[in-house]
């Protein structure tokens, strides 16, 4: 299997499972397992916290001693096995233990896949965008398939789809991996220190985690906001998919159009787009404006994510990449999003549109820092 195709499969299979787990796992807990919304929300919050800790500590440490190829097989296999443990779990305490165990292993597939892509960019000169867009396609397919299956049956099908998706993710890890991934990268224990002493890395990281974290209100309260606008459930799914489609188009063209653009300038674009996106939703609480703002997901998520991948590929040694990915996934995709979810929820209870205004305010420093980066490190 060609390297580009191999990586595309890894992205597609993981993000298909992510598209089942992220939007629908709460519904499965409530409808199939009988938990209250409060208890289900608590379980998901614990999942975010555990995920943040595991990607920050476990992934960078274990990747020092084990090749990424073996890790992908191990993580996917354990995820598949752990899912079966959920079948007999019914009490809150037992489900809490199950969700913690799952969150220690399953989310590690995200930084692992991204680290794999970064290394293949360095050694095999593959196109990151061409493979990453298949992750977005996998997420979109999962949203559509899960919605249709739930409509045709019950929420019990969520677990079945998650199990099937994980099986195909595990199956893909046993395809012949590119030789450059089979090398075990033994690193010194101070790989975090090497990153933290770099002012440029810390500034880029700060901008990216704030931009990614600012999606908290959108991820957590976007559906509720559309319901406030009297949008039916069928059309909500269609509207949310506009953002993913915009992301797919961006990743398909990212290398061609942005491959030589300075990372700092990409962050300026992402910061401006993020401020505009959340501000217009606040200023113009109309369905048409929300739909148009969905296109900006290619900027607020896509450009910010692509900029970070470009930065670690251009500026870091290969041995530092898993540590950098672990930090980014832990803080940007986990901890910051979780913390800003509480902030956004507080504002949403006051007035729904305030949740988006709050995210806009949070990202204003990103624009300032990005301009400083462009001037100083161009």
Walkthrough of the structure:
There is one protein chain. The protein is an all-alpha fold. The chain has two domains: 1-186, Growth Hormone, Chain: A; 190-378, Growth Hormone, Chain: A. 81% of the residues lie in helices and 0% in strands. It contains 16 helices and no strands. It has helices at 3-31, 37-62, 68-85, 92-105, 109-123, 128-152, 156-172, 191-196, 199-213, 216-228, 233-258, 263-283, 287-294, 297-315, 321-350, 354-377. Helix 2 packs antiparallel against helix 15 (321-350). The longest helix has 30 residues, at 321-350. The two termini are 38 Å apart. Residues 186-190 have low confidence and may be disordered. It is found in: Cell inner membrane. It comes from Bacillus spongiae.
Please write out the topology.
Layout: H1 3-31, H2 37-62, H3 68-85, H4 92-105, H5 109-123, H6 128-152, H7 156-172, H8 191-196, H9 199-213, H10 216-228, H11 233-258, H12 263-283, H13 287-294, H14 297-315, H15 321-350, H16 354-377
Helix pairs in contact: 1-2, 1-5, 1-6, 1-7, 2-4, 2-15, 3-4, 3-5, 3-7, 5-14, 5-15, 6-11, 9-12, 9-14, 9-15, 9-16, 10-15, 11-14, 12-13, 12-14, 12-16, 15-16
């Amino acid at each position: 299997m060609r390297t580009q195709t191999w990586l595309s499969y890894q992205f597609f299979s993981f993000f298909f499972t992510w598209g089942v787990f992220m939007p629908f796992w709460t519904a499965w807990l409530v409808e199939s397992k009988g938990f209250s919304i409060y208890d289900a929300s608590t379980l998901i919050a614990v999942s975010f916290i555990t995920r943040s800790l595991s990607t920050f500590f476990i992934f960078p440490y274990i990747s020092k001693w084990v090749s990424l190829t073996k890790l992908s097989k191990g993580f996917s296999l354990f995820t598949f096995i752990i899912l079966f443990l959920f079948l007999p779990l019914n009490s809150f305490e037992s489900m809490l233990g199950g969700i913690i165990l799952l969150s220690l292993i399953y989310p590690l597939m995200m930084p692992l896949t991204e680290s794999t892509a970064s290394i293949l960019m360095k050694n095999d000169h593959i196109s990151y965008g061409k493979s990453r867009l298949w992750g977005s396609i996998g997420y979109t397919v999962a949203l559509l398939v899960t919605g249709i299956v739930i409509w045709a049956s019950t929420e019990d099908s969520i677990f079945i789809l998650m199990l099937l998706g994980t099986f195909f993710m595990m199956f893909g890890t046993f395809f012949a991996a590119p030789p450059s991934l089979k090398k075990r990268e033994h690193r010194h224990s101070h790989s975090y220190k090497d990153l933290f002493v770099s002012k440029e890395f810390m500034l880029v990281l700060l901008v990216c985690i704030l931009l990614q974290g600012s999606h908290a209100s959108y991820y957590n309260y976007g559906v509720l906001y559309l319901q406030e606008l009297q949008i039916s459930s069928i059309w909500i799914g269609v509207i949310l998919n506009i953002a993913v489609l915009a992301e797919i188009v961006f990743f398909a063209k990212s290398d061609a159009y942005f491959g030589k653009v300075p990372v700092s300038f990409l962050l300026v674009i992402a910061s401006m787009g993020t401020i505009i996106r959340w501000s217009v939703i606040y200023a113009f609480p109309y369905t048409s404006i929300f739909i148009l703002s969905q296109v900006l997901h290619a900027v607020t998520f896509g450009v910010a994510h692509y900029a970070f991948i470009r930065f670690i590929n251009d500026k870091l040694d290969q041995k530092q990449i898993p540590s950098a990915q672990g930090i980014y996934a832990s803080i940007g995709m986990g901890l910051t999003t979780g913390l800003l979810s509480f902030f956004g929820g507080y504002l949403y209870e006051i007035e729904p549109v305030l949740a988006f205004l709050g995210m806009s305010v949070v990202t204003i420093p990103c624009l300032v820092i990005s301009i400083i980066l462009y001037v100083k490190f161009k």
